[in-house]
Structure to design on (723 residues):
């Protein structure tokens, strides 16, 4: 993989002489106290400012400060005018705009498009403190506040809207957020390398228009071919001249093909250029640095579902920093140009980023107000980033990438000790050592060259790749060292567990279950049926059963009564009514009762969102004829699928009875153990047969709750997380 300059190798900007701020300023008074006459960079964010590395504005702000720049924060400004955007004065270099740690639309609305009453990233949990499509609104206000100041957008909201994308809330394909925000640059993915280079080059006097060669960025340019670049149409494979055998650009790579591509790459190094013929194969062509793939134009994809599905497919194939090509998409008389993804941070760089002088506290202006998101993470430690799982409904891979970036054990232990020694209210319990997943720490491809050439969408689907190192020993050692620290009573693991990897390491499962489960462990099989699981790129339910056996075995050996909390998704693309019925039967057989459930929400740019919008399976070649999948759309069917997950709720019985009869499964209606729902209706719940009372036996079983109401009882909380 291409090397990148060390993140901290730049010469510091002259303003480093002002030293480190106890917290980045949010007012002119704070700037005055620091001796600043102006800010070099102002970060505008939709979240409350918490000076903690789990909050994007703090991580980027402290990183830029370490390079000598004076960074101010404008948090949750009043967006109805430009006044709040002027309170820190004019930034010398640029405005950095982010919607916050979550997409503003995901944060604001439920999967049923209902407005949420609260916001975990706001002081007091108050809802409505940020506008819909925050990146667009904030960028426009920055332009109004100070004309001519460069506007750089980033964060997950901008990252997942970098090209034309399906927008669930308006039910249409929207333009790249670059077009609507009129920003100068868009930073996608983890932004450390990009923002540092942008800041230093602007400080050196370069115009923002010249910053068109930075990996992990997107920008607008005039429509047309660029001089010196080879342009490849995404819908075809070139035929003139001598070519390698054409390889289907949509084909999912097999394990064996990883090694084959390595050998092919070695052969290409010895080849000579073949004139103006571009050889496009599943590894990058020789002139990859000057090759761009032209995606179907916005005008086409906004009205043609198949072209949109094709575009999504190409985008997801071009995400490996080792071989991804640049992408370009026409929007009217402009092109949105995406440079290849950023080079992942090394362990040394990750350590340095997380070792920056964060106060780990909310800004003092919030006083004693509670910020729910901070309360969730203040005793947790992020040990890695990225995910190679490739779950189609998830946005982690599209944002953070498939290559795992891990911190060193020493850096993590140092942060645990800092929490123990400096964080108010610490009682000796670390709430999590994790990240996007609990157990991908230090896992990677066994061969760097294979990794650099691979185009698999997932390293663990349809099975765990034989080239993947699945050794959990470094993670086991980390757990043991952390729990042995003086003053640490318990190390809990709260991040989502990748159980298909965990079952490959019984030693890891034993360590986890024996020492790091607080009675309940969340796990996400997502479904039981092969149809929806194949569209999710998730393992079969048999893998869950294997993990559960190991979990129960080691819990018994430890003398502990512990439970798994399974999560499931309703109404995911590829899910039929029969699939949900079978899932409900599985839940009943296993005596599970979910109190709150989550219907699938199409997050922008995810593969599953393309399936939802187009009705096409984008995991294989997209064709106009064939490849269609079932997509549960409309309020009625989505409610039905959620009702199957809550088969035990009398309020859902009338709907389920009607559905089961239409499905020819009236045999599941009755009062016996083999039945899914009864043929009577309790008083006060509506529907035919109303008036009969619920027997005391009707509510036996496991009811999962987030807080213990009595021994052995818990409830599955609705997953409100950006995935």
């Amino acid at each position: 993989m291409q090397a990148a300059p060390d993140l901290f190798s730049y010469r510091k900007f002259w303003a480093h002489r002002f030293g480190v701020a106890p917290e980045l300023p949010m007012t002119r008074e704070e700037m005055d106290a620091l001796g600043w006459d102006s800010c070099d960079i102002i970060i505008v964010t939709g979240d409350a400012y918490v000076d903690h590395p789990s909050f994007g504005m703090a991580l980027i702000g402290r990183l830029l400060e370490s390079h000598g720049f004076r960074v101010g924060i404008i948090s949750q400004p009043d967006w109805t005018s430009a006044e709040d955007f002027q309170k820190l004065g004019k930034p010398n270099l640029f405005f950095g705009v982010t919607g916050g740690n979550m997409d503003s639309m995901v944060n604001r609305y439920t999967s049923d498009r209902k407005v949420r009453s609260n916001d975990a990233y706001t002081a007091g949990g108050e809802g409505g403190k940020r506008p819909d499509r925050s990146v667009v609104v904030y960028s426009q206000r920055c332009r109004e506040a100070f004309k001519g100041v460069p506007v750089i957008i980033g964060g997950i909201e901008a990252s997942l809207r970098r090209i034309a994308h399906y927008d669930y809330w308006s039910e249409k394909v929207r333009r790249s957020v670059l077009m609507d925000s009129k920003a100068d640059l868009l930073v996608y993915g983890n932004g450390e390398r990009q923002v540092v280079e942008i800041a230093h080059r602007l400080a050196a006097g370069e115009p923002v228009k010249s910053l068109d060669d930075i990996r992990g960025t997107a920008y607008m340019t005039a429509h047309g071919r660029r001089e010196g670049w080879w342009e490849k149409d995404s819908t075809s494979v070139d035929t003139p001249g001598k070519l390698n055998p054409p390889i289907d650009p949509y084909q999912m790579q097999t394990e064996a093909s990883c090694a084959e591509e390595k050998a092919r790459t070695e052969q290409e190094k010895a080849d000579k250029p073949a004139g103006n013929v571009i050889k496009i194969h599943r590894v990058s062509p020789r002139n990859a640095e000057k090759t761009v793939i032209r995606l179907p134009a916005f005008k086409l994809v906004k009205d043609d579902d198949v072209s949109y599905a094709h575009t999504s497919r190409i985008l997801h194939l071009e995400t490996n920093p080792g071989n991804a090509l640049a992408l370009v998409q026409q929007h009217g008389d402009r092109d949105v140009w995406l440079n290849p993804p950023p080079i992942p941070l090394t362990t040394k760089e990750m350590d340095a980023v997380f070792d920056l002088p964060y106060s780990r506290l909310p800004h003092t202006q919030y006083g004693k107000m509670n910020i729910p998101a901070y309360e969730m993470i203040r005793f947790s430690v992020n040990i890695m980033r990225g995910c190679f799982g490739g779950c189609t409904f998830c946005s982690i891979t599209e944002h953070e990438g498939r290559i795992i970036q891990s911190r060193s054990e020493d850096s993590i232990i140092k942060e645990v000790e800092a929490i123990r020694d400096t964080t108010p209210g610490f009682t000796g319990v670390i709430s999590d050592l994790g990240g996007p997943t609990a157990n991908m720490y230090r896992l990677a491809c066994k061969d760097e060259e294979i990794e650099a050439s691979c185009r698999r969408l997932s390293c663990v689907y349809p099975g765990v790749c034989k080239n993947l190192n699945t050794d959990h020993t470094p993670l086991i050692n980390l757990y043991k060292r952390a729990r042995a620290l003086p003053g640490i009573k318990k190390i809990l693991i709260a991040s989502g567990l990748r159980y298909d990897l965990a079952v490959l390491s019984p030693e890891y499962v034993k360590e986890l279950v024996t020492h790091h489960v607080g009675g309940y462990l969340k796990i996400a099989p997502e479904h039981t049926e092969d149809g929806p699981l194949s569209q999710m790129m998730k393992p079969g339910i048999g893998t869950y059963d294997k993990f559960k056996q190991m979990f129960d075995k080691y819990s018994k050996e430890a003398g502990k009564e512990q439970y798994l909390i399974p999560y499931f998704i309703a109404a995911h693309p590829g899910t039929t009514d029969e699939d949900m019925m079978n899932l409900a039967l599985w839940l009943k057989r296993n005596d599970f009762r979910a109190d709150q459930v989550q219907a699938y929400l199409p997050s922008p740019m995810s593969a599953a969102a393309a399936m939802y919008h187009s009705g096409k399976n984008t995991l294989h070649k997209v064709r106009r004829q064939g490849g269609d999948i079932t997509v549960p759309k409309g309020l009625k069917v989505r409610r039905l699928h959620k009702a199957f997950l809550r088969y035990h709720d009398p309020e859902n019985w009338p709907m389920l009875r009607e559905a089961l009869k239409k499905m020819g499964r009236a045999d599941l209606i009755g009062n016996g153990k083999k039945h899914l729902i009864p043929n009577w209706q309790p008083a006060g719940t509506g529907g035919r047969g109303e008036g009969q009372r619920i027997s005391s036996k009707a509510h036996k079983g496991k009811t999962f709750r987030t807080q213990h109401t009595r021994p052995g009882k818990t409830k599955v909380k609705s997953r409100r997380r950006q995935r």
Remarks:
- The radius of gyration is 26 Å.
- Residues 541-557 form the longest helix (17 residues).
- The CA atoms of residues 53 and 354 lie 6 Å apart.
- The first strand starts at residue 41 and ends at 45.
